[in-house]
Amino acid sequence: MAKTLVYKFGGASVKDSEAVKNLSEIIRNRLRKNFLIVVSAMGKTTNSLESLLAKKLAGEDFSENSAILKQFHVEICQGLFPKGHAVFAQVENLFLQLKNKLEQELNRDNYDEFYDEIVGFGELVSSRIVAEYLCFQELLVVWKDAREVVHTNSDFRFAKVDWEKTAKSCASQWRPVLESFPILTQGFIGSDPKGRPTTLGREGSDFTAAILAASLGAGSATIWKDVPGVLNADPKVFSNTRKFDELGYREAAEMTYFGASVIHPKTIKPLANAGIPLFVKSFLYPDAPGTKIHGEAAPHDVPTIVLKTNQILVSFKVTDFTFIEELHIHRVYEQLQALKLRVNMLQLSAISISIVIDAQLFKLEQLLERLKPEFEIRYNEGLELLTILHPAENGAQAYLEGYEVLLEQASRNTFQAVRRKT
């Protein structure tokens, strides 16, 4: 039996009706049995849903925002389907479900669970529209709910995958379908042991493609982006970028670990463990080769630049004139783990621990509350974390001109600096 091929299309590749038509043309010449398509929410839908939650949490009226989001999806459907097509009733029903969920109580204590219920909605409506359009174009696919097979724990917003249960569900529920029909499903979402919706972390649809590819023993996974492949820097921020024709799993994993946005950081590991190649290709130029990530690629020494925005620098200083010990580090990391906060940079001195983390609603406030009794704490918000892998000699300085540097460190192959515009 032929191995399954997994294609993942991100928000930019389904951002409007023309983008969905382009997706169908990419699929048209490639569709076959044992074919799995994973789609993200359309355009900036996830951001819009997060804004809805923020308004609800603040006790503000969010009905206008909800209406705008609904109209956005209706207009995409109007560009794809004739009047009266069944998809319009499906979209109407999904937004009614969203409205009912948004009427439930939301507070700081249940925010993460509520978030997963609401924000995963973007993938559900997107996948319905895309599946209906492909079938309308006589490209028959079977719509499936990813929550049926992607099993996780109950760490809402950052759920961890139950790999064994997920693989069994994929084998028993989806493989028989794939032997006869292609499947279209959602990225980003899963379900916990009680059947409650979970999400895999922001931009987690890439990770979904890797989870399903590994669980099905796929022949390859392909992520379709608005860039020609994996570049050594974000072309929206930096000029003169270079494309990698191929990358090793380890190099790609290192880039994503430091925040390269082209691939979700958890994507590489399951594919590498299973020896499944990952292709990153452009949906604008689908016949171009893109980048192949696999186990046989030669290492590179091209400087690679990663910039993470909306960063917070937090420094914990001991208050009793003692030096930093393992116990202090353990206490800080214990609370970071409890709050599901990932450290993007760490620096120790004799009397302080400095960490850089992503800004997340409530998280800094909760961290301060828990550790204030033990440390004197200072923090700076609205920062950028610049990482350069394989920096050229003195090559980092050009990226620091016009910035105040609050923290920097260098190792043999990596330079990092926390900066803000002066």
From TrEMBL:
<protein>
    <recommendedName>
        <fullName>Aspartokinase</fullName>
        <ecNumber>2.7.2.4</ecNumber>
    </recommendedName>
</protein>
<dbReference type="InterPro" id="IPR001341">
    <property type="entry name" value="Asp_kinase"/>
</dbReference>
<keyword id="KW-0418">Kinase</keyword>
<dbReference type="InterPro" id="IPR001048">
    <property type="entry name" value="Asp/Glu/Uridylate_kinase"/>
</dbReference>
<dbReference type="InterPro" id="IPR036393">
    <property type="entry name" value="AceGlu_kinase-like_sf"/>
</dbReference>
<dbReference type="InterPro" id="IPR042199">
    <property type="entry name" value="AsparK_Bifunc_asparK/hSer_DH"/>
</dbReference>
<dbReference type="Pfam" id="PF00696">
    <property type="entry name" value="AA_kinase"/>
</dbReference>
<comment type="pathway">
    <text>Amino-acid biosynthesis; L-threonine biosynthesis; L-threonine from L-aspartate: step 1/5.</text>
</comment>
<keyword id="KW-0028">Amino-acid biosynthesis</keyword>
<keyword id="KW-0808">Transferase</keyword>
<dbReference type="GO" id="GO:0004072">
    <property type="term" value="F:aspartate kinase activity"/>
</dbReference>
<keyword id="KW-0547">Nucleotide-binding</keyword>
<feature type="domain" description="Aspartate/glutamate/uridylate kinase">
    <location>
        <begin position="3"/>
        <end position="282"/>
    </location>
</feature>
<keyword id="KW-0067">ATP-binding</keyword>
<comment type="pathway">
    <text>Amino-acid biosynthesis; L-lysine biosynthesis via DAP pathway; (S)-tetrahydrodipicolinate from L-aspartate: step 1/4.</text>
</comment>
<comment type="similarity">
    <text>Belongs to the aspartokinase family.</text>
</comment>
